[in-house]
Amino acid sequence: MSGTSNDTARGVVVGVDIGGTKVLAGVVELDGRVGRTARRTTPGRRVVTSRVEDALVAAVLEAADGRPLAGVGVAAAGFVDSAGERVMFAPHLPWQGEPLRDLLADRLGCPVGLDNDANCAARAEAHHGAARGAASALMITMGTGIGGAVLLDGHVVRGANGMAGEFGHMQVVPDGQACECGRRGCWEQYSSGNALVREARALMADQPSVLVEMSGGAPEQVTGPMVTSAAEQGDLVARQAFASVGGWLGVGTANLVAAFDPEVVVVGGGVSAAGDRLLDPARAALRRTLVGAGHRVVPLLVAARLGPQAGMVGAALLVSGDQVRR
Amino acid sequence: MSGTSNDTARGVVVGVDIGGTKVLAGVVELDGRVGRTARRTTPGRRVVTSRVEDALVAAVLEAADGRPLAGVGVAAAGFVDSAGERVMFAPHLPWQGEPLRDLLADRLGCPVGLDNDANCAARAEAHHGAARGAASALMITMGTGIGGAVLLDGHVVRGANGMAGEFGHMQVVPDGQACECGRRGCWEQYSSGNALVREARALMADQPSVLVEMSGGAPEQVTGPMVTSAAEQGDLVARQAFASVGGWLGVGTANLVAAFDPEVVVVGGGVSAAGDRLLDPARAALRRTLVGAGHRVVPLLVAARLGPQAGMVGAALLVSGDQVRR
């Protein structure tokens, strides 16, 4: 497999995914496979920024295991400027405009690439996953909220501010549910991990559900994984919650498809682990809501393939992209 | 001006805009200026397709005025396939999948380009108008409904089915106003020429308005140009109608900007003739509704520059594009 290994004289490529709770680094091969990984706890958002950089550098060096670094790509859970140089702000990290890319390049002594985590995950799916070979694709990342990315010819469209793909804050209900962003009716209030839990909590007030027992009778203790597990056990409340969140996934996707007309729509993020329980109601709503559905090829709505490693793999592509570009 | 004229030995480039009521053809210079034009009435949608092609060919030949044809670009008010070969369907034209591009190339003896009218107008604004020089832009065309296009590096993103840019049928109100497309709550039901007229008709039932006199006391006789004229005279009903339609223009634009993050948003089409009366409430709603407005450069929302000739000029770019591409 020498043709696909990057462990050569020029060194290894390491991808890093940094979120609010953990830093995950891994050596990424040219074919997208992940080798040695390392993990650190994110120091938090109220610490000096250098402590977060320390954790990041430590994770990179542990993953590299003494091999020289050919390049390091960083996927950050925050807004990255259009030049890919700075994390402008991030809800769970202390960076506010620090020139992270150059700071890390100095400390690591190799080229560094930087982008937000949703863009990196999309890049990974485009090169090695569910969007591979598509001339145009949308990535929708469903976690706590909704993130995403627009892909054209395998490249992420980053936008004038590097902020393209903020799908979760498209308004789908005028004067709707209040959103953490300060506005109302944002898509992610109806289709996300948070929405799934809220829907299940509301439904279990009126209907029998295994979630009552799972949560010790306290609806506020219900979590997303509990709803997924309850749905697998056939619980009707949990299944209704997935039908609601999936339906809204389809409605919002129809809006994006009307605008972009992509070949394929890839759904990733934690909630997408529910697979067809989420995607089947979404596919039905997409067909029902999409303009001209009878006159077009309705895009496939598919689950992401790379799972929790997508951010890391896509980050590595920021520095090894030329070698794998189709 | 020999450097900008296309009236050379290789012949002239003619752009044609064909809609439900008229066929407009014109010689288009390399700098986007329009020379000799010709006009025909569209024969209708219930005639044999060759009659429409006859009208189109006649308009082209009249505009060319005996000069050889270097190429002809056609902007059609309908859905054009992703290859740019066929009009798949059109509400006011008889074509249903005819290979129009090749049919016309045979009849005219020159290369022919084909795209839908909104894409052509966007291409014209990108090369010669309000989106010139922008790395990314959105064109929103407000006429009877809403059409549009996505521009990246001056090129229209056509989509997998050639159907990108169908912004008017993004759902903004669940179970909202019924739409001609068969669904409910489409954006163009709240922000378009039709929406402007409907809003004014509803408001004049309860408030004094010059529209009562202008329409002979019959609200169903109110037209878009009447509302524009009444607003210019200071009529409060007409101004409220513009505020409503403009506000919804901003809300829908905020959704598109969240997704694409373009440098500039260009608003064209008949309703855009109202200028800031439409765009000021739209700008306010865009700033209010756009995610992260405090952390980004909010894109300019500007009126299109090329007016009713945009389709024709953009159609010509389909066959002369290489010569003017930046």
TrEMBL record, chains A, B:
It comes from the Bacteria. Pfam families: ROK (PF00480). Belongs to the ROK (NagC/XylR) family. This is ROK family protein. The lineage of its organism: Bacteria, Bacillati, Actinomycetota, Actinomycetes, Propionibacteriales.
